[in-house]
UniProtKB/TrEMBL annotation:
Superkingdom field: Bacteria
Protein name: DUF4860 domain-containing protein
Length: 149
């Protein structure tokens, strides 16, 4: 009779351990999925914010003063306004902005972490491609104004 009580207790204890291990593994899997979702959403938010910032800057200066220049294997978006030019570029894995009469990359202000900025102007269409944490998004802006060739 004593053996049957020991087996009952042992069975209940094993069942409790299996339940506990299952609960812990479900919580750990859920935590991993949640952290991946948060990282993906943060990356997409940063990417969309930076891309929207660039598009709005172009739209503000979309009067014939939007040009692209290459500086040390980097595309630089140049937005001329009067005697000053607003330069947007990626350097050291950050999107930078600098305003001045001539380009000075070292004086730019850090805006957001960014891996790559690719710009292309074909006819009246500006293509902006931005890569942040290996996620790439593109936007296109129709250029208007006098000298957009």
């Amino acid at each position: 009779m004593k053996e049957s009580h020991t087996m009952d207790i042992l069975f209940v204890l094993c069942l409790f351990l299996v339940f506990t291990a299952s609960a812990i593994s479900v919580v750990m899997i859920g935590s991993h999925v949640y952290s991946q979702s948060v990282n993906t959403m943060e990356t997409m938010h940063n990417n969309e914010t930076a891309l929207n910032y660039l598009v709005e800057k172009v739209r503000l200066h979309n009067d014939g003063h939007v040009t692209i220049m290459r500086q040390a294997d980097t595309d630089v978006l140049c937005l001329k306004e009067g005697t000053q030019t607003n330069y947007l570029y990626v350097q050291h894995h950050y999107l930078y902005e600098y305003t001045g009469s001539s380009f000075a990359a070292q004086k730019g202000q850090k805006l957001i972490a960014c891996d790559r900025l690719a710009l292309q102007k074909k006819h009246q269409l500006l293509s902006i491609t931005l890569t942040i944490k290996h996620k790439t998004q593109s936007a296109y802006v129709a250029l208007v104004g006098r000298d957009q060739a």
